[in-house]
Amino acid sequence: MNELSYLAQSAVPLLWPLLAVIGAYLHTRRSPSRHAALELWQRWWAAVALGLGSLWMTLAFLGAPEVMATAIGFAQTPFEFEIAFANLALAVMGFRAAMPATTARERITLGLGAGMFLWGALIGHLYQWFAHGDHAPGNTGGVLVHDLLVPAVMVVLARRSQRLAAEPAGLVARAA
After folding, report:
1. What is the dihedral of CA 66, 83, 136, 14, to 10 degrees?
2. Rounded-to-integer distance, Cα 175 and Cα 111, Å
3. Is the C-alpha dihedral spanning 95, 98, 103, 104 positive or negative?
């Protein structure tokens, strides 16, 4: 595999967080308040970075399990089917977190739930990399950043929303 092809394949998981950042940025440029902007950032991150990114992984693992196994440096096994449905659960969690009525506390819980799977996957990728020299594009690079940041950013944004909601109304209005 040439270097450009490797970089392109390795970067695919970063597409979803990038789209979430672009969408949130464009959507909040003229936001009426910090609270409204933060709400939009949370919804974009949950729906696109976690929801659509995980739905994409579901479809990829179900539709092309042999390609996905090769991309992560493994032989094809029933594992791809299981990972597809774990990603479907993450997609459902992301879409739930993106709903307007979802509370910051619920978003923190959903982010931590996603983190349990994705941070575990991150540890697994690092183990395969260092213990077995697995440098496949689906095992190193963008997937490491994705698995670390998607749930972490979700939790940080929701925690910031909790803190902003707890501030006295006058401070919130002056900061906007």
Report:
1. 120
2. 27
3. positive
